Known about the structure:
This protein has helices spanning 27-43, 71-76, 80-97, 143-156, and strands at residues 11-14, 50-56, 60-65, 102-106, 115-118, 131-138, 166-172, 177-182. It is an alpha/beta fold. The protein has one domain. An 8-stranded mixed sheet has the order 1-3-2-8-7-6-5-4, with helices on both faces. The mean pLDDT is 91.
Amino acid sequence: MNLTTPNISPVPLVLGDLGNGRKGITPAYGQTLAEAASVCLEEQGHTSPTEMQVSGHFESPGKLEWNIPSDQSRRCWNDDGFATEQGAYGIAALLVEHCGLEVVLRSKKKTGFDFWLGSPNEDNTLFQGLARLEVSGIRNGDASTVDARVRQKLKQTNPSDGKLPAIVVVVEFGSPIVKIVEK
């Protein structure tokens, strides 16, 4: 599995689309991820739509679009760490779709990664054609912080290394930037 840059520039990432669900993301959970990401982006001073730089094994400008979060959403997502993690899951789920992959299954605890990725058009039985996805979010940092987190997350996937590739996505909401690396 090799990540390739799509022919679309900039890559459109519409957070509200997560509410349609995926094989491994219910519509309700998808909407939750979108809401968390929108709170993180707004709290960093961004307005929709906003440009986002994607670097690493997949390089492309991105364009994030989201709905303005309500006061109730802001109160619900008041835990910065939890909101950042969940928001990063949402952006990563949308981004990997531009690589021809989809979140198909949530990973079990202590595997070293968050989700299983597969083709949206196949059953992916017996783990054939699957990849591991590890996601991390940073509310506000610089390129060196993102690079350090990528290294940390690549190491975190070591216990489950084998024949299946791992993809690490680190989302930084301050700029915003995303780094995606395949192992």
